[in-house]
Fold this sequence. Notes:
heterotrimer; A: mainly alpha; 13 helices; B: mainly alpha; 2 strands; 1% strand; disordered N terminus
Amino acid sequence: MATRARRPHDDVNTDARRARWRSAARWEVGLVVVLIGVLVFGAAESPTFVDSSTFFYLGINVGYLAIMALPMTLIVMTGEIDLSVASILGLSGSVLGLLWHHGWSIVPAVVVALLVGALGGALNGILVAKAGLPSIAVTIGTLTLFRGLAEILLGSLTVPATGDRQFPAALTNIGVAPIPGTQLSYTTVIFLVLAVVCGVVLHATPLGRAMHAIGLQPEAAQFSGIRVRRIKFWLYVVSGVVCAFAGILLTLQNSSVSYGAGTGLELNVVAIVLFGGVSIFGGRGTVVGVVLSVAIFGALQMALTQLNVQPEIQNVITGALLLISVVVPNGGEAIGRLRERIKRK
Amino acid sequence: MTTDTAVRPVHRFESLLRARELGIAIVIVLVVAITAVRNANFLAAQSVQQLLSGAALVALLSVGETMVIITRNVDLSVGSTLGLSAYVVGDLFKYQHIPVLAGFAVGIVVGAVVGAVNGLVTTVLRVPSLVVTLAMLYVIRGVDGVIVNGHTIDPSAIPRAFTEVGYRTLFGVPWLAIIVLVVVAVAGYAMRSFRASRDLYAIGSNPEAAALAGIPAGRRVFTAFVISGTLAGLAGALFLALHAQVDNSGGLGYELTVVAAVVVGGVAIFGGSGTVVGAALGALLLNTINQALVASKVSSFWNMAVAGGLLLAAIAFDRWLSLRVARGLKSARGVHRDV
Amino acid sequence: MTGVRAAHRIAGVAIAAVLAGVSIVACGSSTGSGAGQAGAATAGGIKKGLTVYFIPKDTQNPYEVLADQGGQKALAEVGGKVVVSSGTQDTATAQIPSIQAAIQAHAAAIVIAANDPSALCPSLNQASRAGIEIVSFDSDINCGGSPNHLFINQANTQQIGTSEVDLLAKQINSTGQIAILSAAASATNQNAWIGYMKQELAKYPNMKLVTTVYGNDDPATSLTVLQGLLSAYPDLKGIISPTTVGISTAAQYFDTHKDVAAKIVLTGLGLPSQMKSYVLDGTVKSFELWNPSNLGYLAGYAAASLASGSAGMQTGAAFKAGSLGSYQVAAPSGTTGPSVVLGPPTVFDASNISQFNF
């Protein structure tokens, strides 16, 4: 929850910031170690992990999730959250499907689907940034609303329905063929390009510094002339567009869409972002961490599925990793506190 | 004058809270009335019973959730906890033939243990509860899946006396609703009257001030999580009583419905204000809308969209109300100064 | 700050290197050992040592679990093995990794209960191109002929739809308002059956289908929409619920509200184990289903026969399915490609329900 609780040491002074940077960097080193561990585990345990197709499949399976994680990272950085991402994915996919079903050609249908994503994001943005409503509540509302709209649009229809044209093969190919000459899926490359853009914006521009500042100290950010509301509003719009794009990619990847596409993925996206070291309170985290987190979750899922580990156990592992990701950095502090208490007694 | 200004806002605040609950109650009545105009049968005794018992489980969960949210935390693991508790109770009925009351006790204990884990990790390690309970959502559902292992508890395995709790009525009121009413009444009374419960509001509205005032925040938050878990465990047992069967999917996705009910019920998501009565009414409203849509012969494709729109309206309304009250308080103070 | 940036860059390079390493290693590796491929043929023309991936809708659905067990029994009989792989929730995205795992393991065949008629087509096409036989069961895929696959139909689709209407008609004298309580709005099977129910209802001019509501195969949602249904249509005479979760939820409600049960007849598709107590106490007169275990068993034999080349998908092709006897491939019709029908559904009532243990 985007709690506004701030610890006293959260001042925006350089020392504290440097310390925070250092701890963030440490977290990423930890993620690299975990990733290497997962890769070694996969290669050692699963005979098919080191297969030419694993990397491609990994991209297919987590690409669209990973793409949604990027705007989520930026939003969480500013101390807010967007739980409507998977519903926007489903809604824009459904819009694309409905228009296709009614004989539209692909380009205008995609444009409208992206516009719908932008509108959905703008609704979130207006309610959160302009009206000042709590984002967790607003986006639970829009999560339900957008999924509901998708259900109204498509209902029992799966597009292409019987008698419909298929989506253009050149586009649906992203779901079955890697980029020629590589094992990269198109979604992987799109994700990496977007990640670089996000990374540059977040870590190397005044806008990115503003996002950090908003997450750390919203009031101070406001006073220092940062347009908090405007930045938040546009972040939600960007999130809407990017998630709509992910919805289009998923539709093409599966060559089809029904209203339930992506149901329940919002919590997976949040889990990936948090495991990547982004603080739920905002102001702390890096895009590199999120990219590593995506790679770890994707590789782990591949390895465990190949080894035919029960999906229930996979759930437990996902949860445990998430728990560890917050417990480990805080564990040292907690032990310190305990010692102090014992000493006092 | 000092005493005056100190007392007045509190009075106003309480009356506002009461107004807020009244507001939801009015909306519920409106929804029922509009539906009844289209379909008189919606007011039949049986239909009203269904409204009450259908909302019971989510209302129960929202009582615990309210206590957690008031402290500026959140419990996303309630759905998974309900599912685990329901299956464990069913499994013990099926293979150990435990007595009926033991079934409820087991459900409550399962929930309390989960709540204690949530509370301990959150307070001792000072980890954001959203992350902890999101992780627990996965872990518990996974553990549940390992236990369930593709089986299902059939109605024939559950004692009749247990499932009776799910449908029996007393003077026309479903037992389920009575249980929830009792829980809401006790919790509502406690939240208003006990020092420890008032602390929850203090922790939520200003953690630093609460710490300075010597409130043992860790212990209070821990207790809130244990209560939330306990109620989720009880809800699991009641789920089994109501549906007379359970597999791995019990309570799947309830967490967001519960948070939605709590928010609709006027509990501030950032803590510090709200009542369990409001949250329970929020749960009743959401269920009433769902049933009203079917009863008014609206295509069920519309259910989710309408529920979502309503949720947003409730959040916006809440904001509008609190802004108005803030303005009201300001002007009230202004009047005082004039006098 | 520069130090930090440098650290970032190093971290970034490290990731890139690790990821690139994987793909380079990956490109360099040859195709696998072919562990799942066949060995010597058995007497029945089925090769030994076949690996068949069973991909149910999810790993927890009791119905699917029974079907998987049937498949395991079939493959055990012919000296092969079954790998059951799927997600915990009924989504296509959760099934795709399992299809990929089957491709990578060079499975001989995939037997899949599709969560989505179309979304799995690209992945299954890849599997088919890798030489894996595709068999669908429980819920068919609709991929426009590619991949070539065999659908193991639990019963003739039309027959399921029509027989449920007939079953209900018998109990309500072919008169009155009826409603359908289905699974999710996009559920393939249910929509196909409901289509045939509507056709069959033309034969009963005095029976009127007033609405279809969707319980999403969730007991709580099913109960909510059922209760709404009851107050919306006070004159309702019958409910058909062609899904095990829907019918058992409705049966529990009827069981506990005898006045409702006295007015409304409930039928549909349900598991005998879940419905037994309701049938024995008279809440539900009759409902139907097939044996899910037999369905999986038949699918297992079909997959093994296709993978051994001892059966084809052409109309009339025959294969032996162990203790179930011999089966023939039925001609494609409508959107359904080549299929094998398990048999007519079994109608369960008080006279026979105790004999079934699934």
